[in-house]
């Protein structure tokens, strides 16, 4: 097959950092001219990237730290992340030109993907936006699903608190908790997000944590009866304030620590003793440990969505070049909802 | 029944403190002369106290803090604690003169106990010292038993770390873990305790945490493969250092925080992120939630002891007047083994 060469725009990762991640830690470059084909014998697929996902966990891959659950990025190579792509050429019999796939790809226009076994073929559905396959039906949605049902041990009537509640994960946790018959309060960092939580996402109540001088007493105000479940997306001071407000036998699912910039930031806790006196369980988890539930998750969440029981808010930026700014914005809460980059339309 | 009046020596609790507890927070006094009888219609028992238990949890009752799992002591009243006592007179048909009982009593020579339903009658056994009913077969032993079997989810071959390992709870946790087929390392604060752990209590290894400049690397040295279970009796810096050394899916049973002087001491954590990346479960517990297992515990531990599978080390001080010093000594690790006060011989 004779194909034209294309110059492949890419976002490269430049070098490791332990400071706040900046746009200049990445750069836009033109890759070397490439053929839009999957070489014979490679078993690879050549995809056109449509949607790229900006997720906080990627911050961890920008450190020179090899002992985490994901290896660090290679400086000088394209940023790696989850995406929705369209197959342009395939040397893998399981995929054909025109298929839509979700999985790990690169921050570039076209990617030759060798690990095709980790790609998930998307059954296209007019009722569901393709981009949701990196959000509601992707890793963040699955994180919310297993975190809530498998880690939090929820019961009807439980008092549930969600931090970063309008984010990619939090917004679904809150809605699942409501469907489960729980009382749900969320926190976020702008009044716009608080409005969304209350008026669009169906939380019973919500507050802007930046307006609160004392998080501990704020939580006491929103949960006079105490908290049964805390779904923690931020860590640090908020986790500490929550411990003081937990009920006996409360559960904390630790999903993210976006407040923690470096792996070894010192965090001060005043309320650790509550872990004993209230018999609290604090449980860290990774969605990847529950992958056997992925199929059930897709079925459940797709049904809920189609039945109008849940909604999903995306923050869509357009153009590959917008990705570094959008990614960095995650850590100061600039995104309203799940942050996605639209690289190309189908 | 005509009886002589006795002057009842007591240790009174003086006033609440948020500082380090001191001997002068308690005082020895003679109580008002009392008759050694259980008044008719009182349903009470009058006991002679033989052994009194010094336990770290009692520190919490010396604070003016009403929201914990135990109410605060009353200033000016005798210190309340667990003990082994002999019934002198009984108005409760379930007890008779000469019975030995274990339960909550006062730090004094004689106590009139009204809550007789909370007393446990001791089946005397020549093979088992009476004082063990506030240690190996009492609350600390039960704490070790449920903490290890019910909270830590132990498996044969697990790497187990115990802090305050020669204490009332830790020494039994380590021995149960060895019986379960685990690899067990303990830490303590003197070389004498380290020797006991290795040579008498059967730990695979042990170290003096005071000799270590860097607890995190010390633990890496003792557990090059990482830690599956941490039985935490101290909290604070040691808990933080352990988090960095846990294996994936590790479990931390939080039993005590003797390093934390006040309820709101600030504790610095550098390794909280490990809770996510290693999917660690941190679980606080109170033995009182497992009381349905007490009978099984007594049977199991009594058998183990009689079969010579476990030993128990006590630090016995003599005389009621020695109790304040012994109690305060718990918080600087002066006791070697379970701290008991012998008030009177049978």
Structure, explained:
Two copies of one chain form a homodimer. In chain A, strands 5, 6, 7, 8, 9, 17 and 18 form a seven-stranded mixed beta sheet that branches. By secondary structure, chain A is of the alpha/beta class. Chain A folds into two domains: 161 residues, Quinone Oxidoreductase, Chain A, domain 1 (Alpha-Beta Complex); 150 residues, Rossmann fold. Chain A is globular. Chain A has eight helices and 18 strands. At the A-B interface, strand 15, helix 6 and strand 16 of A face strand 15, helix 6 and strand 16 of B.
Summarize, please.
Chain A contains eight helices and 18 strands.
Key structural traits:
alpha/beta; homodimer; 346 residues; 21% helix; 7-stranded mixed β-sheet; 2 domains; Rossmann fold; Quinone Oxidoreductase, Chain A, domain 1
For the largest beta-sheet of chain A, the strand count, sense and barrel status come to:
7 strands, mixed
Can you identify the CATH superfamily of the largest domain in chain A? Medium-chain alcohol dehydrogenases, catalytic domain
Q: What's the CATH first level of the largest domain in chain A?
A: Alpha Beta
What general outline of chain A do the C-alpha atoms trace? globular
Q: CATH architecture of the largest domain in chain A, please?
A: Alpha-Beta Complex
């Amino acid at each position: 097959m004779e194909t034209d060469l294309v110059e492949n725009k890419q976002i490269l990762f430049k070098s490791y950092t332990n400071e706040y991640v900046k746009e200049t830690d990445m750069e836009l470059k033109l890759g070397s001219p490439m053929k839009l084909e999957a070489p014979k014998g490679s078993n690879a697929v050549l995809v056109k990237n449509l949607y790229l996902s900006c997720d906080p966990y990627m911050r961890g891959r920008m450190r020179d730290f090899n002992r985490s659950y994901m290896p660090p990025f290679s400086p000088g190579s394209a940023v790696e992340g989850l995406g929705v792509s369209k197959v342009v050429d395939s040397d893998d019999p399981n995929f054909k030109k025109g298929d839509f796939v979700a999985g790990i790809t690169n921050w570039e226009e076209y990617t030759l993907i060798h690990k095709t076994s980790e790609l998930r073929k998307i059954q296209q559905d007019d009722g569901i936006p393709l981009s949701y396959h990196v959000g509601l039906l992707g890793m963040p949605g699955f994180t919310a699903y297993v975190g809530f049902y498998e880690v939090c041990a929820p019961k009807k009537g439980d008092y549930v608190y969600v931090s970063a509640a309008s984010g990619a994960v939090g917004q679904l946790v809150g809605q699942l908790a409501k469907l489960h018959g729980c009382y749900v309060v969320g926190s976020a960092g702008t009044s716009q997000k608080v409005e969304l939580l209350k008026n669009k996402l169906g939380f019973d109540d919500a507050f802007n944590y930046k307006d609160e001088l004392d998080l501990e007493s704020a939580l006491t105000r929103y949960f006079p009866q105490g908290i049964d479940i805390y779904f923690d997306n931020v860590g640090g001071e908020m986790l500490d304030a929550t411990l003081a407000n937990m009920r006996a036998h409360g559960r904390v699912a630790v999903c993210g620590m976006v407040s923690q910039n470096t792996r070894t930031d010192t965090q001060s806790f005043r309320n650790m003793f509550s872990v004993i006196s209230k018999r609290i369980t604090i449980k860290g988890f990774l969605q990847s440990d529950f992958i056997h539930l992925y199929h059930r998750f897709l079925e459940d969440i797709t049904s809920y969505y189609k039945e109008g029981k849940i909604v999903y808010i995306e923050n869509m930026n357009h153009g590959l070049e917008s990705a570094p700014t959008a990614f960095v914005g995650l850590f100061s809460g600039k995104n309203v909802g799940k942050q996605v980059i639209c690289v190309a339309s189908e």
